[in-house]
Backbone:
């Protein structure tokens, strides 16, 4: 009997193979929403890609202009400051206004759409703090 049990265990899948990021992972509706093949293939509107990459395009333009005016050191210094500011984050279940990034971009004096309609108390993304932290650390 012991040989038969050993051979069954040998042919079975180990527990480490079946992890959250493993082969048998299902689609997480709470975190990723419903899947749609159409959304993965084409944007819904011609301007969607432009709007999605607006901040990136604006940063590239500003860095190119800054390089032409002040030299290569100015955009490099600014990119280094952006990276340093983005590394400092709050816990994943706490809302962050990203004030330092807004100051570096010059958006701290502007009132935009997200300033008025981005109230964290009305957010649909609320979750259990322990679960969210475990997901961020890769434990879940």
Residues:
């Amino acid at each position: 009997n012991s040989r038969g049990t050993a051979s069954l265990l040998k042919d079975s899948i180990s527990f480490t193979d079946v992890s959250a990021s493993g082969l048998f992972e299902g689609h997480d509706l709470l975190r990723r929403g419903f899947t749609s093949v159409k959304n993965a293939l084409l944007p819904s509107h011609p301007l969607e890609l432009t709007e999605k990459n607006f901040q990136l395009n604006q940063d590239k333009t500003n860095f190119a202009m800054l390089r032409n005016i002040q030299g290569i050191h100015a955009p490099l210094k600014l990119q280094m400051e952006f990276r340093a500011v983005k590394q400092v984050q709050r816990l994943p279940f706490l809302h962050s206004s990203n004030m330092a990034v807004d100051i570096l971009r010059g958006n701290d004096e502007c009132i935009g759409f997200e300033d008025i309609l981005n109230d964290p108390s009305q957010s649909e993304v609320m979750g259990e703090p322990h679960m969210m932290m475990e997901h961020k650390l890769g434990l879940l």
The mean pLDDT is 76. The radius of gyration is 23 Å.
